[in-house]
């Protein structure tokens, strides 16, 4: 987690103020986490902000409704 501290000249100083750790003690910094289920994004007809064509969103909603 980074915070920006404002400076008197109008600039800012970005500082790391916290880190996220896994239960194992490892950090996910600059690595990220791997998904449990990978759903490939459709490239042929994908449109930004079109939930009817977003197969990743559709799959996630199906999982949520099933649980």
Automatic annotation (TrEMBL):
Organism of derivation: Candidatus Fonsibacter lacus
Matches recorded under Gene3D superfamilies: 2-enoyl-CoA Hydratase, Chain A, domain 1
All residue ranges annotated as the Tail specific protease domain in the record: 1-39
Molecular function GO terms recorded: serine-type peptidase activity
Gene Ontology BP term (one): proteolysis
SUPFAM superfamilies (alphabetical): ClpP/crotonase
InterPro entries: ClpP/crotonase-like_dom_sf, Tail-specific_protease
Protein name per Swiss-Prot or TrEMBL: Peptidase S41
């Amino acid at each position: 987690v980074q915070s920006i501290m404002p400076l008197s000249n109008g600039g800012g100083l970005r500082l790391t103020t916290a880190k996220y750790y896994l239960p194992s003690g490892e950090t996910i910094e600059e690595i990220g986490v791997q998904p449990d289920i990978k759903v490939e994004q459709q490239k042929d007809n994908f449109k930004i902000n079109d939930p009817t064509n977003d197969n990743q969103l559709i799959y996630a909603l199906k999982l949520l409704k099933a649980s």
